[in-house]
C-alpha cells in the first residue's frame, strides 16, 4: 500500500476557525511545525493538545523535532 493510499480525507471541524488556522500557518515552515512550537501554540490559544493533530491534519501540516522522539 502506498503512502497516498493511506492518506485520509482531511476534515474540518466546527471549532477550526479561519483565525485559528491563520495563526497556526504563521508558525509553519515547509509544511512542518516543531513540537515545541505546537505546544506553545496550544498554550497560547488555550487549545487542548488532543485537538492539535486534527487541526494539523486538516491543514496538511506535519510535526518535526518531536520532543519525545516519536516523529
Fold and architecture overview:
The protein has 71 residues and is mostly helical. It has helices at 3-6, 18-25, 35-45, 52-59, and strands at 32-34, 62-64. It has one domain. It has a two-stranded parallel ribbon with strand order 1-2. The protein starts with a helix and ends in a 7-residue tail after the last strand.
Pick out the low-confidence regions: 1-6
Strand content: 5-15%
- Mind telling me the C-alpha Rg? 12 Å
Number of DSSP E strands? 2
End-to-end Cα distance, whole Å, is: 20 Å
The secondary-structure element order is: HHEHHE
Classify the helix fraction into a percent range.
Answer: 40-55%
Report the sheet with the most strands, covering strand number, pairing sense and barrel closure: 2 strands, parallel
Note the overall shape.
globular
> Helix/strand-derived class?
mainly alpha
Mean pLDDT: 84
Number of helices: 4
Give me the side-by-side strand order of the main sheet. Answer: 1-2
Q: What is shown here, in short?
A:
The protein is mostly helical. The chain has helices spanning 3-6, 18-25, 35-45, 52-59, and strands spanning 32-34, 62-64.
For the structure shown, list the relevant keywords.
globular; single chain; disordered N terminus; 44% helix; mainly alpha; 71 residues
Note the topology:
Layout lengths: L2 H4 L11 H8 L6 E3 H11 L6 H8 L2 E3 L7
Parallel strand pairs: 1-2
Amino acid at each position: 500500500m502506498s503512502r497516498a493510499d493511506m492518506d485520509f480525507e482531511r476534515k474540518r471541524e466546527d471549532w477550526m476557525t479561519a483565525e485559528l488556522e491563520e495563526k497556526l500557518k504563521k508558525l509553519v515552515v515547509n509544511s512542518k511545525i516543531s513540537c515545541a512550537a505546537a505546544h506553545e501554540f496550544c498554550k497560547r490559544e488555550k487549545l487542548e493538545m488532543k485537538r492539535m493533530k486534527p487541526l494539523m491534519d486538516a491543514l496538511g501540516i506535519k510535526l518535526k523535532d518531536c520532543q519525545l522522539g516519536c516523529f
